[in-house]
Amino acid sequence: MNTDYTIRIIEPNDYNIWDSFVDSSPQGTLFHTSKWLSESGLDFRLLGCYNKNGDLLGGFVCGIKMINRKWTFFTHPSFTPYLGIIYADHKGKYLTRLSRNKQICHEFAKAIKKHCDTLNITMSAYELDDVMPFIWENFTASLRYTYILKLGNMDNVWKNVDERFRNNIKKAQKDKLWIDNECGFDITLKLAEKTFQRQDMKLNEGFIERATIYNKVLSSYSQCKSFVTKTNEGKPIASLFMVWDKKRSYAIISGHDFENEHRGALRLAQWASVEYTKNVLGLYEYDFEGTTLMHTERYIREFGGWLVPYYTIKWTSPKLKPLLTAKRLIRDVYHAFKPLPLTGKIITD
Q: How many CB atoms lie within 10 A of CB 163?
């Protein structure tokens, strides 16, 4: 390992230092903070990269799961879109910053292998465009996307949204839909449940429990809010749950009532959260916490945000690969021979 840097675990008594570092790092988000991770329901690991003077120059963040009580899996807790590496802010020229961060990243890539047996981590979408050191260390990297709305002049933001979006918002307002941003969080969860029910799925209790905990904790810090679209009669039909840090806000949970569907209902809730981000919080970025699902991506694209790529890195220890390969084979065989449900008309001779 390069003698210029030392990688070590950040202990709980230094979490306040870590959280200040997250605030100042260009890549740091709410999800990297000890406050968020402490409520995640998972163990977590913070690794710091220090120079000879003891200055913290970079950090690596992950949740931890155990496989068969033997193997350590670095992964994400629920509702946590970004983890991985963040760096200290650097005001020097691009080449200097790139070279320093690349060296720190390489030290982390080597050190991480000593702390886990397998890893699947999605990196920050903010100013993190170099994962080559991970590739050099035989990690795999895959591309993901989010949309980030830049909230400068809000008149221009409104002009840049899709015309169909504006029409749906105007129709919602004409139909006297309105936003309640003081609703209880249970309304948001009920509407999220309805969305899952439409897809013949069910929210598990773990999802509900963890979402409720995050809402309670972040409410005490004034860092979250639900925006609920209601009919003129006061019936809730769509909702968007948003969290934020000192840099931007993040859309985390949404849902709507398909039995009382209105094309503008969820858009109205999301637009209200965008306006709140700029006009009340004074923040200049809104992250849709993107998805690669075609239908959802098309909906998010209507808002006119910037398409931003980011990376997921994966690695598995050679000693664990045969076990995971065997498990995957058993799963594939099971699904291959599992009886399929009969649908439609059964034709016989």
A: 8
- As a whole-number percent, the residues of the chain with pLDDT over 90 amount to 74
Q: What is the mean pLDDT of the chain?
A: 89
| Three-state SS annotation for the chain | CCCCCEEEECCHHHHHHHHHHHHHCCCCCHHHCHHHHHCCCCEEEEEEEECCCCCEEEEEEEEEEEECCCEEEEECCCCCCCEEEEECCCCCCHHHHHHHHHHHHHHHHHHHCCCCCEEEEEECCCCCCCCHHHHHCCCEEEEEEEEEEECCCHHHHHHHCCHHHHHHHHHHHHCCCEEECCCCHHHHHHHHHHHHHHCCCCCCHHHHHHHHHHHHHHHHCCCEEEEEEECCCCCEEEEEEEEECCCCEEEEEEEECHHHCCCCHHHHHHHHHHHHHHHCCCCCEEECCCCCCHHHHHHHHCCCCEEEEEEEEEEECCCCHHHHHHHHHHHHHHHHHCCCCCCCCCCCC
Q: In degrees rounded to 5, what are phi and psi of residue 344?
A: 75, -160
Give which of 166, 193, 181 is closest to 229, Cα–Cα. Answer: 181
Confidence of residue 18 (pLDDT cuts 50, 70, 90): very high
**Residues carrying CATH 3.40.630.30, the chain:** 6-143+310-336, 152-283
CATH superfamily of 152-283: Gcn5-related N-acetyltransferase (GNAT) (3.40.630.30)
Q: Could you tell me which CATH class the domain 6-143+310-336 is placed in?
A: alpha beta
pTM for the model: 0.88
Give the span between the Cα atoms of 41 and 32, in whole angstroms: 15
Which phi and psi angles does 134 have, rounded to 5°?
A: -65, -40
